[in-house]
What does this fold into?
Amino acid sequence: MAHERVRAIVVGVIVAGCLAVLIVLGSRSLTHFDAALVGYTFATLFAAFGIAYRYAMWLQRPPSRMYWRRGWQVLVSSAALQRIASGIRRAVVDVAGNRFIFQRGFLRGAAHMSIMWGCILAAAITFPLVWGWIHFETMPGHLNTYRTVVFGFPAGEFQIGGILSFLIFHGLVWASILVLAGVMLAFRRRMIDHGAAATQQFGEDVLPLVLLCAISITGMMLTVSYTWMRGYAYGFLAILHAITVIFTLLWLPFGKFFHIFQRPAQLGVALYKEEAEQAGQAKCKRCKKPYASAAVVRDLTTVERELGFRYEMTALGPKSADKEGKGTGKNRSSRADHYQQICPPCRRALFGLAQSALWSQAIEPERETREPGAA
Amino acid sequence: MATLPTEEINTIHEYGPHRSAPIRGKTTDEPERLVKTHCCFCGQQCGIQLKVKNNTVIGLEPWEDFPFNRGMLCPKGVKRYLQGSHPDRLKTALARDPSAPGGFRPIPYAEAIEKVASEIKRIQEKYGNGAIGVLGGASLSTEKAYLLGKFARVCLKTPFIDYNGRLCMVSAGAGNKKAFGIDRVSSPWADMIGTEVIWVAGSNIAECSPITTNYIWQAREQGAKIIIQDPRITPAARTCDLYLPVKPGRDAALFAGVLNFMIEHDWIDREYIDTYTVGFERVEEYCRAWPMARTAEVTGVPERSLREAAELWGKAKTSFFLHARGIEHHSNGVDNVLGTINLVLASGRLGKPKSGYGTIVGQANGQGGREHGQKCDQLPGSRDISIPEHRKYVASVWGIDEKDMPGPGVDAYEMFRKIDKGEIKALIAMCFNPVVSLPDNTYVARALDMLELFVPIDFFLTETGRHANYVLPGSLQEEDEGTVTQVEGRVIKINRAVDCPGEARRDWIIIGDIAKALGRPKGFTFKSSREIFEELRIASKGGVADYSGITYEKIEENMGVFWPCYSHDPKTGEPIDHLGTPRIFVPGSYNPVAKGKGPFYFPDGKARFNVAEYRTPVDDASTEYPLYLTTGRVVSHYLSGTQTRRIGPLVKQYPEPRIEIHSRLAEKLGIADGDWAVCETRRGALTLRAQVVTTIRPDTIFIPYHWPGDKSANRLTVASQDPISRIPQYKVCACRVRKAEGAPAYAAVLEPQQ
Amino acid sequence: MAVPGHLEFFVDPSRCIGCQSCVQACSECDTHHGEAMIHLEYADRATSIQTVPVICMHCEQPTCAEVCPADAIKRTSDGVVQSARKPRCIACGNCVLACPFGVPELYNDQLLMMKCDMCYDRSSVGKKPMCATVCPSQALFFGTREEILSIRPQSMPTNRFRFGDQTITTRVNVMVPRKKPRPLLLDVTSAMNERPQNRTLRLGVVDQGEPDPFAEVKI
It folds into this structure.
C-alpha cells in the first residue's frame, strides 16, 4: 500500500511540477503573471497534484490497470487505425454530445450538457489567464485594437467595442448562465424525483451543485458590480469568488468532479471491447452458448485472481468426472474449471437448482424408511 | 343487421386493442391521494391502493393491512392501474356507421339513450317483451348485478337475463346448493394453515389465483401435505407431495374410485355421515363400481398414486379441499363438484376447525355476482324465481305485482340459440364478451348479426361490441363505488378513485337513463350505489345469501364482512349488530333454513350426498381426433382480455396464445418448439405457435383462451353444456394437431394482443 | 436514511411459481423506473416449470465492486450494494460477468450498469421492497429473522454461498431445510450437474416411484 502511495505521490509531484514549469514558460518568466491571481495559481497546482495522485492510485487497482493497459495496447496497435472512425464518433456523440445521458432522460441530458459546456468554457478562459498564458495588450498606435498574446506569441487582434470583444470579455458570463441553467435543472430533478431523493448523498450529489452555483453567482456579481454599480463591494465580492473557486479546485480530485478526468476512460474501454469482440466469444461451459468475448473473460479471471478471489472449481473436479461418463477425455475438456466460465443466466439457474437440490436431499432419508405403496 | 359495419381490421385500427403507453421515466409524480380499493381482476379481490393525481390513476401502492393478501399481488394487480388513462377508453356513445373510419361514429350520450329506448319500444311492441335479452357479468359490482336483474324483470319485463358467470362458477354453485343448500366456501383461507392435507383439483392456482399459493405454502410449512390433480404439471404441482395427472374429463371417476377405496379401508367417518348427512348409501353403492384398477384405467392416473391420495385424504384429521374450473367446466361439471363434496362429507371433517371446502371463484365478483338475481332462474338473496314465496317477497320489495314478474329464463348460451331461432331480437350486454368467451364462438358471432338491436355497455369496444348498433360508454371499476364478494365469501368495498371521462357514465346511471327514456323510471331512480345497496339489503333479507346486516361502514371498519350477515337475529327476530359469518357448517351453528336442526341449509339441517356419476365427455377423443384439448388462463391475462390485452406490460409477459404440447407428442408430429402448428376440432382450426414441454400429459394439449378471432381457443371448444348448471365443457374436447405449412395470415397483420 | 438492520431479505426459490409479479412490480420502483432489475427465469422450460427469482444478494465483499475499474459500485453502511454511480460507470461490463449470482445488467444505450438496490427508495424508509411486498408465493420475503423463523418451521435462512473455492457472505438470505443435512452454506457450483426436474418432491413423504408422472401415458 505504502509503495503504491509513494508511486502516486511521485506522479502527482511530477505533474504539478510540469504545470509549474509551463506557467513560468507561458507567462514568460512571470512577466505576464497577474500577482493578484496567485491564490488561484496555487490552488490549480494543488489540484493538478491531487488529480494526478488519485489517477495514479486508481490505475494501480487491478481492474483499472487491466483496462488501462488493454486500452493503450489497442490504441497503439494497427487496429486503432481501423477503429479511428468509431472512436471519433464515440468521442463526439457520447463525450461531447452526452448522448448516453440524454438516453436516461432529456432534461437530465440537457442539465449535464449545459453544466459541462459551461465549465469547459469557463476553464478555457480562466486557466490560461491565471497561468499567464494569455494576456491582451493594446496595439501601439491603434488604441481601439486589442492583440491577444498566447504563451508570449501574438495570436489575433480585435476591435474594442466590437461584438467579438463583447463576446470575449463576457465569456465568463455566458459560462455562468450555462452552468446555472444546468444546475437549476439538476436541482429540480433531485428535489422531485423519488428515486434520486432516495439514493443521493450530500457530498456526491448536492455539494457539487452548490459549489457550481456559488462560483457562477459570485462571478456574475463581479460583472454586475463593475458594470452597473460602479464597483460597489468589488473587493469583497472578488474575495468571495476566489474562496468558492479555490475550494472547488482543492476538492476537485476527491469529490464527484473527479469523473471529469476518469470518465473519458470509457473511450478506451469501448475500443478494447470492440476489438475483443472480434477476437472470439467465450462459450458457457454449462449451456454451451456464447456469452462474452473470450479476451474479456480471460482478463477478468486474471483480475479476480489478483484481487484474491478463488472462483476456481478444483474441488468439483473428480466428483463431476464421476457423474459425467467416467472422466472421458471429452467431458474433461468441456468441464468448467473456473466459475467465470459459466454464463450469467446459468449462474442464476444454478442458484435455484442448488437450493432445490438441498430440499430433495433433505427428504431422501425420510422416503427410504417408508414402504412404497404401503396402502 | 347482417354483418360487421366495416372490415374488422378498420375497427381494430380505430378502437384497439392497442397497448398502453410505456411508463419509463415517470418518477416525479406525487399522488394527491391513495384510494384503498381492490384489484378488478379475479375472485381473490386483493386489497390495493391506487395513486391518484388530477383525476387520473397514476400508479399503485400495495395495501399491506388488508387481511386477505397483505400487500401481495399478481402481475395483473400490479399493472391494473394502466387501464384507466388508456387511449382506447370509450369517452362517447357510438352508433354503427359503415362510412365512419372504424365502422362507428361518436354520438351524444342523450341521443344514444333516446335511440336505444325507441328501438327497444319498437321491438317489444312488434315481437313482445320476451324479444329482448340482457347479458350481465360476474365482474360487475353486486349493486350492478342486482340492478341488471331488476332491470330485466321490472323495466324490460323479459325473462331473458343471464350472465357470464354461466361460463364460470355455476357448476360449483349448483353442486353446493344440491349438497349444502348454500353456495359459498365453508371457511376463510386462513383456516388452511395448520391443516393436514390440502387437495386442489382442477385449479392452476399459481396462474389463476396466485395469492392462494402463499396460503398453501404456509400450510405446507406447518406440515400439510399437498395433493394436486391436473393434466398439467402446474407450478404448484411441481413441488406438491402427490400429483394426480388426470386425463381431462375424468374427475368424477377419480373421486368415485378414491371414495370407494376409502370406504373399503374404513377411512370414512360413519358417525359424522349418520349425524349430519343423508343419502350416503346410494353413493356407496355407485362407488362400488369403481375399483382401483378401473379408476386408474379411466382416469389415466397410476393406481399407486390414487391409493396414496385415498390414504392421505382418508387418514387425515383435518383437511381442505379446493377446486376450480378444471373440474367444473364439463358437461358433467356438477357431478364432478358433487364428487368432491362426497369425499369431503365422507371424511367427516367439514365444519371442524382447520378444515374446509370450497371452489376458487374466477371472476372479480364471481361470488356476489351469482347471488342477487342476474342469473336466469334467480332472485336476490340467492332466491329461486320459481318459488312463489320467493317471488312474492321480491315483488313486494320491488313494488310490483308478483304476477307481472317473468318466470325463469334460459342460460346465456341458450339465449344465443334463441337469437338463432329468431325468438330474441334485441340484446343489451354489460361486461360480457361472448364472441371471445363462449364455446364454438363462430356460431355466437353469427347469431349476434341476426339481432335487430345490439347494445353493449362497456368501457372499451370489445370484440363483441364490434357487432353493436349502439355502444354506451360505461364505467371502469375504479370509476364507481360498490361492493363485491370475494372468494372466501367476504363482502368488500370497491372505492371510486376517479370520475368517468368524457360522456362515459357509471353503469347504473345508464340503466336508469334507459328506464327513464322508456317511460318506466319507477324503481330505477337511484342517486348513488349506496342507495342500490340499501335496497339490495332489503331484497336479500331472509334469503340464504342474506346481506341485510351489511353496511358500507361495517365493511370498511372490519375490512370486509362475511355473508350471511343478518340485520335481525334469525333465531329471535330481534335487531342485532351482526358481524357476519366467516365459517359456515360448524356443528351446532344456527341457520334460518334448518332452524337449529343442523349446520347445513336444508330444513333438516343435514347435508346431501348425491351420486356423482361419471360420464364420458361429449366429443371425446377418437381415431379421427385422437387428442384432448383443454383450455385455461395464463397469469397475465383475465377472461376475454378486454382489459389485460390493452395493458402493455401484461401483453409483453404473454403476448399470444401458444399450443402447449408434450415433447413426445411433438416429436411424433414433427413439431419443434416455436413452430407454427394447426389444432383442429370438429368446430374449426387454429394456427398458433407450439410450445414444447414435458409438463403436460402427452395425450393432451393446452391453449389459453384470452384472445379473439383467429387466435381464439373458443373457436375449437364444444358447445356442450352440463344439464344442471348449463356450464359449457371448456376443459375437454377432441382435437388433432399437425405442423402448419407456414405462418397464418393474421401474423403479418395483427399485433399480438389483437 | 438507511435500511434498518433488523429487516432482512429471505429468498426461497423453491416456492416460486413464476408469475412475474416481482418483475412487474420491480419496474414500478422509483430508483429504476420502467426497468425491472429482478431476474425471473425458467431453469429450463422444456423440461420443467421451475423458475428461479434472483435479486441482488448484497454481498459483504461484493465481487462486482472489487472488479469495477471505475470504482462505481458502493456498498452503503446498511449493507446495501448500490447500483453503479452514474458519473463513474464506464459500462465495461466487468460486474455483469463477475457477479457470482448473475445479477447486474448493462444498459448499453445509457452506458450504465443497473442492478437491484433492494428498492432503496422504499427500504431506506422502512418499507418492504416492491418484489417482496407483492410476491404471491412469498418466495421473496422481507422482514425480521424472528418472523420468518416462526412462520416457516421447516426452513432456516443461510447467507453463505460457495462458488468453487470461493465462499461469499451476503446480506440477503436463502431458505434451506431446517432438518438434516443442515448445510452451513449453499454450494452453488455443486449443482453443476443438476438438471431441472419435472417434479420436485419438496416435503414428499409420498414415494411416487417414476419421476416422470406421464411415463405410462400412451399416445
Q: What stands out?
A: The two ends of chain C are 62 Å apart (CA to CA). Residues 145-151 of chain C form the longest helix (7 residues).
